[in-house]
Design brief:
By secondary structure, the chain is mostly loops. It starts with 26 loop residues before the first helix and ends in an 8-residue tail after the last helix. Helix content is 12%, strand content 8%.
Length: 109
């Protein structure tokens, strides 16, 4: 076993105003792990990544709606996947057939 000389500890100033969870690395360790400093600049990214894949729907989250009346969808209130909805919030339907079946209030009674 080789003998390695031990020298007195070098005094290092430590910043005490670091945020919680942060730590300080000495300059010797920064050089050992390859930390580099530079000036920030904008430049175009020219690297292209090509990959093969398949895009499909999540079959467990598809819902089919079968209304019992004819008409068309006027408004869809869900604007992104995963939005929490409650009963009656998905769509509003315009149906002439449904409007004909509703009788106006008769005030002669």
């Amino acid at each position: 076993m080789d003998l390695v000389p031990v020298y007195a500890e070098v005094t290092i100033t430590v910043k005490t105003n670091l945020p919680s969870g942060a730590f300080q690395i000495s300059t010797g360790k920064q050089q050992a792990i390859g930390v580099q400093y530079g000036v920030v600049s904008y430049k175009a990214v020219v690297r292209t990544l090509r990959a093969v894949g398949r895009l499909t729907f999540d079959e467990t989250k598809i819902v089919r709606i079968h209304p019992l009346i004819e008409g068309w969808i006027e408004q869809v209130s869900v604007d992104f996947v995963g939005k929490l909805v409650e009963k009656g919030q998905l769509i509003s339907i315009y149906s002439p057939e449904l409007l004909q079946s509703v009788r106006p209030n008769q005030s002669s009674r």
